[in-house]
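Minutes, structural biology subgroup

Action item carried over from last meeting: produce the structure token record for DUF4178 domain-containing protein (Caenimonas koreensis DSM 17982). EB confirmed the sequence was re-checked against the source entry. Recorded below for completeness.
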Amino acid sequence: MATGSPQRIYRAPCPGCGAPVEFRSAQSVYAVCSFCSSTVARQGEILSRLGKMAEVFDDHSPLQLMASGRFQNRTFTLVGRLQYKSADGPWTEWIAMFDDGTTGVLGEDNGSYVFSLPVNLRRDVPQAAQLRVGATTAIDGVPFSIASNVSVALVSAQGELPKLPPLNQTFAMVELRSAAGDVISIDYGTQPPVVSRGKEVQLDALAMSGLRSESAKEEKGRQFSCPNCGAQVAVTLDTSKSITCRSCNSIIDLTQGIGNEMRHAMQDEPVQPLIPLGTLGQLQGVEWQVVGFQHRMGQEPGDDDEQFGWSEYLLYNFKRGFTFLVDSEDGWSVVKPATGAPSLSPNAESATYLGTSYKLLYAYNAETNYVAGEFYWPVERGMKTFNRDFAKGNSLLSMEQTPREITWSSGSKIDSDTVAKAFKLEGKKDLLARADASPASAAKGMGCMTIIVLFIIIVILLVIIKACVDDTSDGSGYTSGSSRTGGGSFGGYSGGGGHK
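Output recorded by EB:
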């Protein structure tokens, strides 16, 4: 547990209201007054007021200012918070100050956390427009995949800050990921761009103290009337970026704030999840709560006739963040977004991640056709991605690609009995049971009409072959000419489990 403190703290009155403003790190140039929200710049011993910072929005995270912990055998304290927003919604980065006055960043990453430290590249930082999503580049001799390239804006800040991009002005932010799980972030909000490098961390491993006691906010502060039907909607997690109304099933966009300006989308034909929203369950030694559900459809490129569907349950734990329980035709699996970027083979038939090679099972287009509950990204009906699913034994690897981002996730299969026991659904064991796919399951993923048509075609072919045999037989049991028999089985594909 961290108990150290910096050797020197600079304290001066806020130019806006006179309240004390503290600088604990010599690297900090800016701070936000906790009393009047003035943005204060430090130049030597002089403070100047730059303007007023927008109020920070609360989030689900157990992190808060002045929480402390240990990283790489050094103690740190969270002294600042930066909140950004992109087309995919807002997220938070926490400024971590070590006892020697240097700083790092503890940031959100697809429902997990990444701890990053500033680095100096041994090459010029390329322009953001040169970094195309999906391409690879070498950083200090290590190949990195460009995972995202988005326009973001700083919308609010709090505490002590080593940098301050222009408020509410868009700039580029690029993320590169390696097969070893490293994340490089290039922040173009300042010149020269700020580059940092980090890895995924778990809060338990950081031995943190001073965390918030719970992640749920008081419902009285997060209840509102559905903009479609007027029914009361209550938000459980503060970082939810979309939620559905339980009365009319409309999807409500929370990224615009709670009020009449909220966008919403109607949904017909509601899908009932087998595991009810709000259910608590123990999986892999961790207690999870089901906070979101979405049903998705997949289709092989170029095949307009065959479709398959699967369901994804979004699970939340106070310290572990988010993970997914996936229900597909192949069975159940537990997966979570991967911090790194697996390396694809040149023909994309295999992928390697953390020293393990996975074989491609399916490649398909995916579309979300129903959502319920809350999500940490702004889910919309009709959202489309291109997916690739890989496997090695019971281990799974999945890729989802949009024009702005490539997201990988990894996990493993679990049996339906484990799911039933975890969520106390033994009475639904028959509904939860799934038949594992096998190479011989030719009809897997095919509709009933397709099977009937294939059966009729086979019968007709058998009749024709028999007629030909009868016509060409010389009575000795041999046929004149030659014949060829087809080898192998009819190929098909089963619904894969794509996962964000």
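Discussion: Residues 10-201 form one domain.
Next step: EB to file the record with the rest of the batch.
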